[in-house]
Write a structure and sequence with these properties.
By secondary structure, the chain is mainly beta. It is built from one helix and 17 strands. The protein starts with 5 loop residues before the first strand and ends with a strand.
Length: about 220
Amino acid sequence: MTCTPTLLLLALACACASCDDDNSFAPRTDGAASSSDGSSSSSDGATSVRDTGSLAAGGGSGMDGGASPRPMAALVNLGMAGAYVILSKAGISTVPTSKVTGNLGVSPVTATAITGFSLTADATNVFSMSPQVTGKMYAADYAAPTPANLTTAVADMEVAFTNAAGRAPDVTELGAGDIGGRTLAPGVYKWGTGLLIPTDVTLAGGATAVWTSRWQRI
């Protein structure tokens, strides 16, 4: 299968060593937005999530994910892609009202590929804003330095995607693809189905813990 990488980060300690000031934001999202090439439910994806302490999105009481998930797994290096909570090559769409905290970006497609957000361009045309987003929206047709920053971020995303997708799984087919309400230990999770998160998921681990997931388009 050929897939177009899209980055959707549910929670992350930013791994970006040198992010542009305009494109830097502590990556975190708790919204209902999705990318048109698939990064939420029923989609191709590979994401790495790192706990910054005691992250708890709610739901779930027992620990899921196998008896011995791989300890101290290496964090996937996101490079400049770490400045975005959703980053796509094909587009991002939502059905109002969603709530996203963090920056969103699309490249090489233009801002017309961002739909459902009621965008308002900043006076500099470097980014746009949305009432549904606590952060900034970037597209390849915005003013400099946005196009160059996005090109680098997308390239970094593709490297990170390949790295995450190639990791051997510790846990497979957890919840038959539905992980709503579960508490996940650190490790590498893989599904041969779409991934559904209808209710909150808790990530239970310390400051060095890493969660990596891989799922398929259905």
